[in-house]
Specification:
- This protein is α+β, with helices and mostly antiparallel strands.
- Helices cover 27% and strands 25% of the residues.
- It has helices spanning 3-13, 40-50, 110-113, 122-135, and strands spanning 27-29, 57-65, 71-77, 82-87, 99-101, 106-107, 120-121, 137-141.
- Strands 1, 2, 3, 4, 5 and 8 form a 6-stranded antiparallel β-sheet that branches. Strands 6-7 form a two-stranded parallel sheet.
- A hairpin with a 5-residue loop joins strand 2 and strand 3 (71-77).
- The radius of gyration is 16 Å and the shape is globular.
- The N and C termini lie far apart (40 Å).
- Mean pLDDT is 86; it is low at 1-24.
């Protein structure tokens, strides 16, 4: 990639959602009614298959729209200790730019985040989980779907 292409790519990244986005400034939408996210079940099931999950599991998917008009969803998978950023047009969650490990990437304070793209605070996780409980889509996946 040439220098111009590299600069364009960096500029585009500025418009994509970031973990540091304040949850209070984001509008939620129903993933089941959105053309890019309504295929949530096969996308989630395929992701779980890549993780070799064979037991019943649950996830919560919270669709959000930022002030710039970008649509994205957070997939919270408690049993896998993960939060995954799902951006529109992406059908393979394992390719996510933001795959947070709840055991390794969660820190106590903003100072501990220290500018990282992959660290979040416990409060950020709690706020996201609370919002998902209230406004998100709860998805139960049965073992038969994972074969």
């Amino acid at each position: 990639m040439g220098r111009a292409g590299f600069l364009i790519a960096l500029t585009l990244l500025d418009f994509l959602p970031t973990i540091a986005s304040c949850q209070g400034h984001l509008e939620t939408f129903k993933v089941s009614e959105d053309k890019f996210f309504s295929n949530y079940r096969p996308v989630l099931v395929n992701y779980l298959r890549t993780r070799h999950v064979h037991a019943e599991t649950q996830a919560c998917i919270l669709g959000q729209k930022d002030s710039g008009g970008a649509y994205f969803s957070w997939v919270i998978w408690p049993a896998g200790h993960q939060i995954i950023l799902w951006e529109d047009g992406v059908t393979a969650l394992e390719r996510s730019r933001r795959l947070l490990d709840l055991d390794k990437d969660v820190v106590s304070t903003e100072a501990d985040v220290n500018g990282s793209d992959y660290r979040v605070t416990r409060q950020w996780v709690k706020d996201l989980e609370d919002r998902c409980d209230k406004e998100g889509l709860r998805v139960d996946v049965k073992p038969a779907e994972l074969k």
